[in-house]
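Model the whole thing, not chain by chain.
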Amino acid sequence: MKILIADDDALSRRLLEKTLQRAGYEVTAAENGLMAAQHLCTSDGARLALLDWEMPELSGPEVCREVRRKKDQGYVYMILLTSKGSKTDVVVGLGSGADDYLIKPFDTEELKARLRTGQRILHLEGRLVEAREDMRFKATHDALTSLFNRGVIMDLLGREVSRSRRDRVPTAILLGDVDHFKRINDTHGHPIGDEVLQEIARRLLLSVRSYDYVGRYGGEEFLVILNNCPSAAAPGRAEEIRMAVSSVPVATSIGPLSVTMSMGVHQTDNWGARSMEELLHEVDSALYEAKATGRNRVCFAKPASSSGRQRAVPVEPAETLS
Amino acid sequence: MWCLRILRKLNHFERAHLVDVATPLILNLPDLLNRVGDDRELLSELFFIFKSVFPTHLQALEAAISLKEAKTIASESHALKGMLLNLSAVRSAAAASKLEEMGRANRLDGLHEALAAFQFELTALLSQIEDSAAELSS
């Protein structure tokens, strides 16, 4: 584990350095408080620190205060090491944000024991952060496919349409539905259906850019948001995504299954004043059109007008791919 | 007899401290060796660092005493005290501590006497360090 020693006394620094190296720590040394604070405030800085009280530039307690002010980073466990030993000093030291306090000259075994305590706290903090991140992921992602869940993808859609309206940049909304998915479930069982959905999710993610969004809209429906997608590129992009899903059979535990997807697309940089529900209804109508005209195809909602329902316009796969 | 029984129960480190308290040593070598994990090479290195660094602090302290700069007296004495404590140089650390207290309290009477006492302890310490260094290298 990485540890920072901050002490302006070269002798004390060397003694600590050697002692801690022997105890298995990866030691970094700083000669003054400013260097220490800068190191501890970087994202890859040490999370365990031994700080002398009196140092040039910034004192040990000032370093503690500086580090505690930065709340956006992982916890840093700081021990003040000093020859000050009065109760008032202890209160001031701990009040500045230090976690522990050790009187010079230190006893090696006590120092190591206190550092182990620090490691335990950091380990616990790591586990709490991990648990929080896990909960955050579960709250925002679909459990089966690990794509954004409906709530999140709808939120992202709202933001993206707002941005598109504000900056007049084109955005495309794609609603895809796996063709005859009920038949897959009925014929091969739900576990196989789940395998298919997982693979489709993976293919969708691979077929978009890192700044596009893919979410599970519900059941076998997926919503894809293509940011900054001009009208000339939209049919080609939609067709590529459809092909990414259907061109190669999905390998399942009972063997390969041919799966296709129908898609409704809405693309514009002029969304008018229509609500999100209306926009989704228009995309859904285009998807319905794709289903009605033979499935495994992409249909576009008619270019936007500020009011009224859109009529879907089918896009021939061969046409868009050429 | 009870004293002997207690002494037998104390480990090497504790005995070293007990001797410290009773009759402070110029350089408590057993205590120091314990601190450095019996690493004689490190100990020689620490002696070398001390001999290279302390003259600067001592000169700054002497200058501050001449100029009666209480804050600098306190900070320089504190720096020297820290080094001396790490070296288990109990008597000279105590003399530095006295100077530090005087500086912090802005008590400027008797500074020259306190400095002389400190210098005396330092001279004795340096001599002990030389002896110990020779002993360690042999």
